Structure formats: structure tokens, C-alpha cells
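User: Predict the structure for this protein chain, please.
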Amino acid sequence: MSSLDIHPVQIGAPLNLPFAEEGVRAGFPSPAQNYMSESIDLNRDLIEHAESTFYARVTGDSLCDAGVEEGDILIVDKSLTPRNGDMAVCCVGGEFTLKYLEVHSDYILLLPANSDYAPIRVEADEYFTVWGIVTYIIHKARKRR
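Assistant: Here is the predicted structure, written as C-alpha cells:
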């Protein structure tokens, strides 16, 4: 099971960054914008429930086939009701793990996205809690050499 480093969200000051409001084309190139007059506040735009939202840093590779890599930063909202298919931070037997949820009538499956790992079946009598739902994943596009 992988572990997570968990940190509270600090949103006291806005985090305004230049924003290309017209978007960046991933298809054919278009004329570049001469300037960026808009800004985006990551605290405002990525965090809906500040009092129940935390950051967590991923350790491990059980969701690498879903694009979640070691060192990525998760934005986790504890106030959301879990649904099938959610990526969730769960506590199983006193340890945190990051998996997809699959809820059945009498058990829960915690699903990895890496064939090296087996699903974790959680029975009704086991200690288990969904600690929070992942709302955003932040990862580096440029990898270290």
C-alpha cells in the first residue's frame, strides 16, 4: 500500500497567475496572443470547500496507468459524498491508500490502475473509511533528467 503526505490548504492570499483565456490549441497552431490580460486564482478556481480540502503528495505507483505519478499533488475534498468511479484517499486498516472506488451491496473494491497491483476487497466488518475524494491532480509536465 502506498502512503500519502497530507497538508492543509492555505488560502489566505489569492494566487493570481496570468491566464490565456482564449485557450491554447492542441491541434493546428493559431496566432499567438500578444498579451494575457486575464488572471486565474488557483485557490478560488480549484478549491470549492476550503475548510475540508487538503493537499496530498502521491507516493507509490498504483495509479500510474491513470496518469497519477509519484510526487504528484492531489487536491482532496473531504466533504464530497463518494460515488462509484471516484478516485479516493481511503483508510484501510489504519493506512492511507489512493484507489478508485467500486461500491457493491455488501463490499467495496479499491481498484488500482496498474496491473502489478490487485484490487483490495473491503468487507463490511473491516475498518475502512473514505477520507476524501480527489478533485484535481497536479503533476509536472517536464520530468527531471
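The chain is about 5% helix and 40% strand.
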